[in-house]
Design a protein that fits this description.
By secondary structure, this protein is of the alpha/beta class. It has helices spanning about 40-50, 70-75, 120-125, 130, 145-155, 175, 185-195, 200-215, 250-265, 270-285, 295-305; strands at about 5-10, 10-20, 35-40, 55-65, 85-90, 95-100, 105-115, 135-140, 160-165, 180-185, 220, 230, 235-240. It has eleven helices and 13 strands. The model has no long low-confidence stretch (mean pLDDT about 95).
Length: about 300
């Protein structure tokens, strides 16, 4: 069964601890909490989109180890099909070591992509029908980039709208970005990709123009607590974030991208989809964890009704 939206990307297991503050180099800090949960940018975004009501296919790769059962269990609980999972016999499931400052909610993360960095041409060929029959394909930069490039080229060739969340940052070719429907960097990634520091709307406009020169159709730059910058159809704006008491910002960008994808698949404009995604992200940062923090559609709708 083909699904309307496809997330092609990473799946790792998050090993998250909370402490009074983040340690300095060579420092050991006694933590107060530990949690093991499914994560990875691609996986987080797929779960967020699915819980928000999206008809989602998640394409990723796991190891044949005990850690693989953690994302698989989460997929079953979210009613997210496992039919597009691949498995490596030689490389373990990826992991992310996450430290969270319990006073500020800020985090530091080290990711080891593992199996999801070994997606092959044969893997892509096996899911090509799903990719080319999607309305949208969402990519990140947390898997092997050659796989991203092949999936993007296949999607573009068949008129699928490709969204690239440029995280975690790595250099990418202009050919990869050419023809992309939407890029969703944060300020740091936008500067790395365009050479333009994004500090206000004027500088964001210049960064957007640099993306347009690379062949990108629309630009959205996430600005943290300030909201998001959107440049689409010749109109640029900053859409403010909702003010909430954040306790864990881990996965906030993934929550936003998953919500954006779900909203776009329902026919919402980029502006309205960004409002919806802001709400999803605002709810997620008020909870611990990544996939566990993603809200259900009823919660998002209730949040928006109260605004």
């Amino acid at each position: 069964m083909q699904r309307r939206i496809t997330v092609f990307g990473s799946s790792v297991v998050d090993l998250m601890s909370r402490a009074p503050y983040l340690p300095a180099p060579a420092e050991t800090v006694k933590g107060s909490f530990f949690m093991q949960s499914p994560g990875g940018k691609g996986f987080n975004q797929a779960i967020a989109a699915r819980k928000a009501g999206g008809d989602v296919a998640m394409i990723t790769k796991l190891g044949r180890d005990s850690l693989a059962e953690i994302p698989r269990k989460a997929m079953r609980e979210a009613d997210l099909s496992e039919e597009y999972l691949f498995f490596s016999d030689s490389v373990p499931t990826g992991t992310a070591l996450i430290m969270v400052d319990e006073a500020t909610g800020q985090n530091a993360i080290v990711i080891v992509p593992g199996a999801c960095s070994t997606i092959t041409d044969d893997d892509i060929a096996a899911v090509s029908d799903q990719i080319i029959h999607s309305d949208y394909l969402l990519l990140q930069l947390e898997i092997n980039q050659d796989a991203n490039e092949k999936a993007a080229a296949l999607a573009k060739q068949h008129g699928v709208k490709v969204i690239v969340n440029t995280a975690p940052y790595q250099p990418v070719s202009d050919d990869f970005l050419r023809g992309v429907y939407l890029v969703t960097p944060n300020e740091v990634e936008a500067e790395a990709l365009t050479g333009i520091p994004v500090t206000d709307k004027e500088s964001a406009d210049r960064a957007a123009e640099a993306f347009f020169a690379k062949g990108v159709q629309n630009v959205l730059i996430t600005l943290g607590a300030r909201g998001v910058y959107l440049n689409a159809d010749g109109v640029s704006e900053i859409i403010p974030a909702y003010r909430v008491n954040a306790i864990d910002t881990t996965g906030a960008g993934d929550a936003f991208n998953g919500g954006l994808l779900a909203a776009l698949s329902e026919g919402k404009s980029l502006h309205d989809a960004a409002l919806f995604a802001n709400a999803l992200a605002a709810l997620s940062v008020q909870r611990l964890g990544t996939t566990a923090s993603m809200p259900l559609r009823a919660e998002i709708d209730a949040f928006l009704r109260d605004k």
